[in-house]
Amino acid sequence: MPISGAVRAGDFVFASGQAALDKDGYVLDGGIVPQTRLTLDRLLASLKDAGCTAEDIVKVTVWLDDARDFGAFNKVYAEYFKDAPPARSTLVSPLVVDAKVEIEAIAYRPV
C-alpha cells in the first residue's frame, strides 16, 4: 500500500489515518466499540514506530461513518486519553473502507 504509517517533520510526527483492519486487511466485525479499540491500537502502534507515545499526541481527527456511534466511540476514546486528552475534531463522513471509524493524529516529540 502506498502510504506511510507516520512521518516525522522536525519535532512533529504525522500519523496516517487508521481504521479497524485486521492482520489480513479486513475490517473487523462487531461494531463501533471493537473497531474503535483496534483503530486506536493501530494508530498508537504507528506512532510507536516513529518514537512517540499517546502522551505525545497533540491533535486527533476522527471520522465516524454514523453520528449515532458518537457516544459509544467517545467512551472507548476516553479510555485511551484519560488525563490530558489532545485537541480533537470529530466529523461524520462515509469512509473509503467499509469501517465505522478512521482516526489520524499529530504528535509532538522533539528530536
From TrEMBL:
Pfam families: Ribonuc_L-PSP (PF01042). InterPro entries: RutC-like_sf, YjgF/YER057c/UK114. This is RidA family protein. Belongs to the RutC family. One of its GO terms (cellular component) is cytosol. GO terms for molecular function: deaminase activity. CDD domains: YjgF_YER057c_UK114_family (cd00448).
